[in-house]
Known about the structure:
The protein is an all-alpha fold.
Amino acid sequence: MSKKNNTAGILAGLLAGAAAGVILGMLYAPEEGKETRKKIKEKANDIKDQAKNKYGEVSEKVKDQYSNISSTFKETANNVAHTVKDGYDKYKDQIVSKTADVVKNVESELNDLKH
Length: 115
């Protein structure tokens, strides 16, 4: 999550710096105010579009990474569940078998005591 925040911060800083540079350059250019305002508006729209595009790219990357991590987590959880179930089944069968042996031994001992 820290990389995401750093990337977003760097992106925001670069866009803000670019916007400030463009605006300052236009304000000091020897043109009429109306023409300067028009250029500032156009550049602001360009920067806004660039920011939307970058946001879309970063958003898609985050969604892809989330999907990959989610799939990996689900797969790992399923593997763990199967391993636990297999272990349970194995030991359950062993316990049932041992219990049956103990019951037979007890029955045998009781029969021996009766005779």
